[in-house]
Specification:
The protein is mainly α. It folds into two domains: 92 residues, no CATH class; 48 residues, no CATH class. 35% of the residues lie in helices and 8% in strands. The chain has six helices and four strands; from the N terminus they run αββαββαααα. The strands form two sheets. It has a two-stranded antiparallel ribbon with strand order 1-2. A two-stranded antiparallel ribbon has the order 3-4. The protein starts with a helix and ends in a 9-residue tail after the last helix.
Length: 179
């Protein structure tokens, strides 16, 4: 995967330092590329950041949930709901686990090795949440609750807009084949 990503990461890092460009006659403007995150389906995201796939131990890019191996043939793993939240990954921990994985040639907390994208992506903050966190563990519901209550640490406050949001949602016409 690094063969495909190397040139992109190098160019993104270079553009992130800033560059000037003529926009209009006699006017130069300074531009800077800022990488905000990675959008990819799981099959592309996992090799990009050198994590194990979704059915492995510690495969979540956001937390250190080990999952539980299902009995029987194969290596099926489930991530059961737990009222206790698992520790979140940090970028520094991810880099440490990646370096240890490189040194030992073993997967460490779901990280297989260093990835060139670790230099431009802060993991897990710059990766989209996976289905398990968004839906099964209720992360989206928790965030919406905070946004609607105006108590989100990021400053997002939808409380003043609840009435207009509700009216807009009610006005959406469903396709004819919905019951």
């Amino acid at each position: 995967m690094e063969v495909f990503q190397k040139k992109f990461v190098e160019e993104a890092a270079l553009l992130g330092k800033g560059f000037t460009m003529s926009v209009e006659e006699q006017h130069e403007r300074k531009f800077k590329l800022v990488v905000n995150g990675q959008v990819a389906d799981l099959v592309a995201k996992v090799p990009s950041v050198n994590f194990i796939l979704h059915n492995g131990k510690f495969s979540c890019c956001s937390c250190l949930h080990p999952g539980e191996r299902m009995p029987g043939r194969g290596n099926k793993r489930v991530y059961l709901y737990s009222p206790n939240t698992f520790p979140r990954r940090t970028h520094n921990d991810t880099l440490l686990h990646a370096q240890l994985a490189n040194d030992t040639r073993e997967t460490i907390f779901g990280v297989k090795s260093l990835s060139i994208v670790h230099t431009i992506l802060n993991i897990p903050d710059m990766l989209l949440f996976d289905y398990m966190h968004q839906v099964l563990e209720g992360e989206f519901t928790r965030r919406m609750t905070k946004w609607l209550a105006g108590s989100c640490g990021s400053g997002v406050n939808l409380k003043p807009s609840i009435v207009s949001l509700s009216q807009n949602l009610k006005a959406i016409g469903l396709p004819h084949d919905f019951n």
